[in-house]
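tool=predict chain=A
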Amino acid sequence: MDLQQVLRGLIVVIVLLVAAVLLGVILQVATALLKFALKVLLILMVVLIVLRFLEMLRRRA
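tool=predict ok
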């Protein structure tokens, strides 16, 4: 193996490490966004249920 092949291998390893770190960061951000989205969805569902209930009461009156 000559020096050029060793350097090429090192560059490939460095690029793979950077890609793995970026993937980890992206997954952390996606997890945080998913938790936030689930909370918002839960709030919207509660609001929808309350509005349906109020509409049902209004129709009965």
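The first helix runs from residue 3 to 60. The chain has a mean pLDDT of 95.
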